[in-house]
Design a protein that fits this description.
11 helices; transcription; Arc Repressor Mutant, subunit A; DNA-binding transcription factor activity; 7-stranded antiparallel beta sheet
């Protein structure tokens, strides 16, 4: 992962460096800010290469951005971007389809090589994630992919799926996982824009991947509940219990195995972070129905009792 912050540059040079090196050189955009406000500018970003795509997280104080025809000629991208708005919101303009705003927690998509202007709404500045996926990495080569002007996602049912995929992508620890998540995000964007049918083979694969990610997120959210069951998660996911089990059958672990593994991992985190906390209290807080069940399951998984794990100060053994 590559990280960079304006803290590495003298205050009076920060915006000029950001504008010339980071904005134009890395993102291919023109950045503008009134001269009298430049000494107060701050920004940071990270870049990770995952599954054939680039995942950027960017935070910065207020300034204006334009990707003009000359910027595109200088730095063509030929990629589709999926944006996750994390800050106070943003404005997009200079588009063939007019202007729009994107609220906190919302998503948008576009092709890189179409002109636009953008600025943050409110005083919070920019905070967003951008997944940049080369068109060459997409299985579909539909020419409409290159006509995707910036636009928010209009289907509210896709937002939790996109959010779960973005969260899992940020935590991906394997190339296979990252690739499937990138493809799912790309295909969800194409479903939203009418280029890919949800019922197509690729559309169904994207929805399965995204629903599995969301199901795992729902499990993690409800770990403390000892009554956590497939019916509860399926209901929140909006699918049948049979469909939920099929999502996990296609993955490495079943629903019940995933719940148990997540509870065990949570208990290990709590033992490391709160060494003074009673093991019985940790077991209860992670949703185990009894201390005896917790000891049995923990020993089966790690070959030692929870107390021995804590005594060794293990980081994962």
């Amino acid at each position: 992962m590559f990280r960079w912050s304006t803290d590495e540059v003298e205050p009076h040079e920060r915006f000029d460096y950001w504008r010339e090196v980071r904005s134009k050189g890395l993102f291919g955009v023109t950045a503008e800010l009134e001269r009298e406000r430049r000494t107060d500018f701050s920004g940071e970003f990270s870049l990770r290469q995952l599954g054939g795509a680039g995942l950027v997280e960017l935070k910065a104080s207020q300034y204006r951005v334009e990707r003009s025809s000359s910027d595109i000629a200088y730095a063509p991208g030929d990629s589709i971007c999926v944006y996750q708005q994390l800050g106070s919101g943003g404005w997009f303009g200079g588009l063939r389809g007019g202007e729009f705003s994107i609220a906190n927690g919302s998503f948008a998509t576009s092709h890189t090589d179409l002109p636009y202007r953008t600025a943050p709404l409110g005083d919070g500045g920019f905070h967003l994630r951008i997944l940049k996926i080369p068109v060459s990495a997409l299985p579909t080569q539909d020419k409409r992919v290159r006509e995707l002007v910036p636009r928010t996602f209009g289907d509210p049912t896709l937002a939790p799926l996109l959010s779960a995929c973005f969260a899992d992508l940020g935590e991906a620890d394997g190339a296979l996982d990252a690739t499937s998540l990138v493809q799912a995000l790309a295909h969800l964007a194409l479903i939203e824009r009418g280029i890919l049918r949800p019922g197509s083979r690729r559309g169904q694969a994207a929805l399965r991947t995204a629903r599995h990610s969301q199901a795992r997120r729902l499990i993690a959210h409800h770990l403390q509940n000892p009554d956590l069951a497939p019916a509860m998660v399926a209901d929140q996911l909006g699918v049948s219990v049979r469909h939920l089990h099929m999502l996990f059958e296609a993955a490495e672990k079943s629903f019940s195995q995933t719940v148990t593994d997540e509870r065990l991992k949570q208990s290990r985190r709590l033992m490391r972070e709160a060494p003074e906390r009673l093991i019985a209290d940790i077991a209860t807080s992670c949703g185990f129905e009894s201390l005896a069940t917790y000891y049995r399951v923990f020993n089966a998984a790690y070959g030692m009792a929870p107390g021995d794990f804590r005594a060794r100060g293990s980081e994962g053994h």
